[in-house]
Amino acid sequence: MKIATYNVNGVNGRLPVLLRWLEETKPDVACLQELKAPQENFPEQALLDAGYKAIWHGQKSWNGVAILARNMEITERCRVLPGDPDDLHSRYIEAEVNGIIIGCLYLPNGNPAPGPKFDYKLQWFERLTTHAADLLASGLPVVLTGDYNVMPTEIDVYKPERWVNDALFRPETREAFKTLAAQGWTDAIRKLHPDEIIYTFFDYFRDAYGRNAGLRIDHFLLSPQLDSRLIAAAVDRNVRGWEKSSDHAPVWIELADL
DNA sequence: ATGCCGTGGAAACCACGA
């Protein structure tokens, strides 16, 4: 079972690229972030025509998350991150697909830091950590994936010294990721590629992609039940080089069937 | 160290992203 995550940066503007990527790489499940589309403007029919059922939580202009599945039912569990009824951002959606709980998340950017946006990021991180603990306690196999907006360690950023005060790399942010992972989650990319330079984001300007000036901010966290099933994990880096690409590249894992 | 690019929505510029 191949599960992918892709911050599309506008699902309608990105539709040709998204459809090409789905056709070429055929993930069984695809988690999308930054739809940047209201609920009613999601390209449901185009994805159905491509073989994918979808659930999504849209929002006008910003945010928005979706879970797609090919030849499998998607059973929605929730479409907001529990813990704050006043949080109206569409940043989390969770479903069961083929016996696996899939949490698709778009963690807040948090810049500028310090400030209210950074406070929101850390609060959102705490809510995610609380929810993640509940998921672990359920004993079910869980994949928490998406755009975490965190470079967990120095090898996950091309020039770490330039990012120390950025919301994506500040000590508080890295600590929050570490605390979450320490519950018992496995960073799938790092389990299989512990020392490799791997990026999932390249800025649009200054030829960041061509210079490999990237960040690793899109992650897969696996619950312990899935550790022994992890076969492969990689980035579809070439997709970032396509015409009209998102600034993120897709990331995927392959899990052994039971 | 930076919004130089890109998207969406409203309005012919602005907010936001990382």
The second-level CATH architecture is 4-Layer Sandwich
- Strand runs, count: 14
What is the straight-line distance between the termini? 10 Å
At the fold tier of CATH, the topology name is: Deoxyribonuclease I, Chain A
Q: How is the topology of this model organized?
A:
Elements: E1 2-7, H1 15-25, E2 29-33, H2 44-49, E3 52-57, E4 65-70, E5 75-78, E6 92-97, E7 100-106, H3 116-138, E8 142-147, H4 171-181, E9 186-187, H5 188-192, E10 201-202, E11 214-215, E12 218-222, H6 224-227, E13 230-235, E14 251-255
Parallel strand pairs: 1-2, 7-8
Antiparallel strand pairs: 1-14, 2-4, 3-4, 5-6, 6-7, 8-12, 9-12, 10-11, 13-14
The protein binds one DNA strand of 18 nucleotides through residues 9-10, 12-14, 34, 36-37, 60-62, 109-111, 149, 162-163, 166-168, 201, 203-206, 215, 217, 244, 246-247.
Descriptive overview:
- The chain is an alpha+beta fold and 258 residues long.
- It has one domain (2-255): Deoxyribonuclease I, Chain A, CATH 3.60.10.10.
- The protein is 23% helix and 26% strand.
- The protein has 6 helices and 14 strands.
- Strands 3-4-2-1-14-13 form a 6-stranded mixed beta sheet.
- The longest helix has 23 residues, at 116-138.
- It binds one DNA strand of 18 nucleotides through residues 9-10, 12-14, 34, 36-37, 60-62, 109-111, 149, 162-163, 166-168, 201, 203-206, 215, 217, 244, 246-247.
